[in-house]
Amino acid sequence: MTDKLVTIEVNGQELQAEAGIMLIEATDAAGINIPRFCYHKKLSVSANCRMCLVEVEKVPKPLPACATPVSDGMKVYTRSPKALAAQKGTMEFLLINHPLDCPICDQGGECELQDVAIGYGRDVSRYSEGKRVVADKNIGPLIATDMTRCIHCTRCVRFGEEIAGIREMGATGRGEHMVIGTYIEKSVDSELSGNIIDLCPVGALTSKPFRFNARAWELTQVEAIAPHDSLGSNLNLHLRDNKVMRVHPKDNESINETWISDRDRFSYEGLYSSDRLTSPMVKKGGEWKEVSWEMALEMAAASLKEIGDGDQIGTLLAPTSTLEELFLAQKLMRGLGCNNIDSRLRQGDFRMDATQNSVHWLGSSLSDMDQMQTVFVVGGNIRKEQPILAHRLRKAAVNGAKLHYLNPIQIDLNHRGDQDVCTPGEMAGRLAAVAKAAGVKASGGGASLLGAAKVDESAKQTAANLKAADGALVMLGAMAQAHPDYALLHTLAAALAEATGAQLSILPTSANSVGAQLAGAVPHLQAGGTAAERAGLDTLRMLKMPRKGYLLLGVEPGRDFWNGSLSMSALQSADMVVAISAFRSPELEACADIMLPMAIFTETSGTYVNAEGRWQQSRGVVRPQGESRPGWKILRVLGNLTDQPGFDYIDSQQIHDELHKLCESSTLDNKQAEPQNLEPLLSADVLLRGGDTPLYACDPLVRRATALQQTQDAGSDTIRLHPQEAARLGLDGSDTALVKQNGNQIDLPLQLDERIPQGCVWISTGLARTSTLGQPFGEVTVEKA
Amino acid sequence: MVNEVCLRTLDLERPWLMEQYQSRGGYEVLKQVLTEKRAPEAIIEEVKKSGLRGRGGAGFPTGLKWSFISRNAPGQKYVVCNSDEGEPGTFKDRDILRYNPHQLIEGMILAGYAIGATRGYNYIRGEFWEPYERFEQALQEAREAGFLGDNLLGSGFDFDLHTHLGGGAYICGEETALLESIEGKKGQPRYKPPFPAHFGLYGRPTIINNTESLASIPMILEKGGEWFADIGVKNSGGSKLFSISGNINNPGVFEIPMGTPFSELLEMAGGMKDGRKIKAVIPGGSSAPVIPGEQMMDLNMDYDSIAGAGSMLGSGAVIVLDDTNCMVKTLERMSYFYHEESCGQCTPCREGTGWLYRVVHRIESGQGRQEDLDLLDDVADKISGKTICALGDAAALPVQGMLRHYRDEFQYHIDHQRCMVGAG
Ligand SMILES: Cc1cc2nc3c(=O)[nH]c(=O)nc-3n(C[C@H](O)[C@H](O)[C@H](O)COP(=O)(O)O)c2cc1C
Ligand code: SF4
Ligand code: SF4
Ligand code: FES
Fold it and tell me: Which GO biological-process labels does this protein carry (chain B) (predicted)?
């Protein structure tokens, strides 16, 4: 790329453009419209639709603007008789085999073909032969196909190859018989697949959940921030009659570019689940009774006060809550003398808390991710944790970056990368080997592991690539954070980063994981993100040492916790559990005493602080369902009812501003003093469970998104294990097995899977049945059912 | 003055064998070039001087094409030979592969030397089994003789050559579709620019030439560019292989000097079958616009003469039609071919070739409408010059040619729902 500017003339208007860019980029930037179908700014140029043909002076043939580089002095006519004739010709060709039944097409009203046809088409078709009909294929629960409408622009094909990194759509056949599809009937499984709905200019690929539910012109568009992963992807919500009908990406080059993950696109379905809690409820004699808000709030306030000793209360907050909710909840509880506040529900080890006095974050801006030269991911399957972040890592890999992974399972990569796969018990040792190869001395927290580590070729290579890179990250993913020896992994990763000049990246797992630290929704930091004056108990200790009472915010007992069965037993044994929640579930009903219905995503205003520390605000754009109310209002009233000062907010903006002020001097920083004497808690010599949280099992909203739940990435209540491990356990030939963990047992279907290391069985968390077991990484026994 | 270049060994017993080829001085010029370490620039200069124009159809000057390669650019470069020969009426490259494979191999090695490529591929049409085996056998011999492999004849120059058998799609003869096909992808043309000289096989600088073009190289370097140019006429250097077919007595391949009168070629091919009247000639493969027989009898077989008559010399495939042929039916067959062979990638060709065929088909079957001839002209016009590759033009040209010279026959079909040619 050169920065040289050239001057071109388009329709008599002079334009400056960067030398070498395509004409269409220059005209787009200048707001001059050239019709197009195959061109897309994020995809390679294929120049196949021929809609963008324009006249260029001194060139006899019309040229495609999408594939013609600008050159100095070039004179272009986009609407001259010659250009128009070419464009109209293409339009006529496109329409001869396209059904002209727009009224029954789901794309009608927002179809690029329809729009362009109005400007360039004829009124009467001169083509009187039969039109081509293409049989549809079922490509899964998210995308509906109507391939007769396809205009063969190959955007969907190029998306698969270039962006998603898996070739799912392709063109088979020749000429008129060319068909776009999956070749064999199979589902499209990319976690970014929904983007082909937006890319498809016509109604060939449409949203299955949305299909035929509304017309484009009936919808109003409002902006929002995605509430699941830590990217904070920008969304456009399409609303009708106070309902979210569908979700589209909103361009933001520095976050999600033009894409969103399927999770962000389709999770809105969960809003309309029949599980929504729509009125305040109180449990009386084991029976749930609807009560008035007034009564419910008074009872909740009274029972929190009644416990008396704040230390006897546990406060568990969903990390997907808004910043305002998190801030008010901890303010309320700290005001009641309770410092036991946490939002890291899936973390496995909190030994780092003692020395942490700054906010942990991604360690880099999102846009710098694409520029990294080496990334070493420890305990992370980024594609299935934070798909849009994975897209940036893939871009780095495509640009030549070296990617290394250390995981307790072999993961599916969509780019080149090295994978070191070992059992959960061996992970810290392997990481120590890389650190040792990088020259880290055996001292501090990881001393014994560093001493014992054996440096092999792969460790040397990883260390060398980290050192050699101009821009490198050591990234701790969700599986590292869920590891019972997370503190060790953290310490070793920090030392490795230090020794190699790489940045340490602590991948925030949820929409407000960074926000929660800034808001003081963790036991060791207070609002503003600085060390708490008095540290309270972390999630694990709040459950291991059950409290008399709990306040839950947006949290589902069992499925939202690192140790599902422990969460259930602790909460069930409490005297009083007040739950502020958007959903009800059998588990919540079993634990709670008072349930306060909360408005969520789209129904309430609030802020999310993303992985790179960017504050983004979402508005409440639809009415809360039933009697539910925004969380901040519920918490404000609880503050008033418990006689606390400083709870007189008029709107959520005031809360935001108050916290923002507290955060003025706070910094995001992954550097911290190493805790001493960390010994591994996870044994390497026993059969271990490994477990991830599947992409669509991570929070209460997605778990209720029906279409997403029908996909592969919803996960399944199964035991996966290596065939040889199955043989060793005497399970070959069995369909199911009995799993025991922490005194709980269930039988689960068995799946042989060579990606699971031997010495380990894989049981995901966050699912209906598996969450009755214990922690994702821990000792387990498996026997014949 | 026949068979001076590519078919110069045709009179030998088994000309495809190494010893036979060498008995006529084969590989001598390669040895010379390698031992004298002739400057690559000088070779390209010689090819330019020869006036050799690409024999694959477009007639682009070969020497000029080679000079586009930045010889000193680091990294892999390739020489690719296009032996896909799919254009209806064309069957000349087949004879080079069958009878003189060594000259093609020698030509490719020399081309590699000239542009600094160390690898070559010959993409052979899928249906050419015998030619493929002959070529493979010749490769084997050449490798054994040390003409292929590393450090050829101790010169320090490495070159090896592989064949790639196509799958039978006409579009894979288009140079960039051919490259995609070698790469193992679907045979679909790439948008140009970039041209193969900059972004070719596996994205590396590549020259791609027709079989006949490459097989001409050894003679050009042996006897000099001027010698070659002088065989032919101005703007059309050398001799050329013509594959002549149709209603003639003796169809076949003839290598004759450029500029030879068509009437002489027809005579060599035994004249018209059954002494019938010549009606029309398609002079350069099915995509060349038709020329009425009488006019053709006054033309010479070279680029300028044929172009002057509104057609093109193309690949040198001459199809001769006598007066028993219905032009509507002839065009129907050709349009069907392009409709079937369109790769489907770009809109005007994917949709337009089918439209052309269907309209011609309905005229042929007595269902034509008055507006159809204007429609054909218009659709052909909307395809030409607006597609990714030249197949779109190739589909439009015969339609335009037929309507230019035989509109009355088409009109008759529409008016009377039958053919004006008795036998049609
Ligand atoms: C549809 C199509 C089919 C073609 N088929 C052939 C072919 O079979 N053989 C060939 O040599 N060139 C064929 N060409 C021409 C090639 O694209 C290319 O111009 C040629 O191989 C260059 O070699 P030359 O310069 O030596 O002629 C075809 C072109 C088109 C558009
Ligand atoms: S399905 Fe849509 S995006 Fe894909 S090629 Fe067809 S029209 Fe283009
Ligand atoms: S002109 Fe025809 S054959 Fe050539 S690229 Fe376009 S569709 Fe394919
Ligand atoms: S947009 Fe340029 S050819 Fe399709």
Answer: cellular respiration
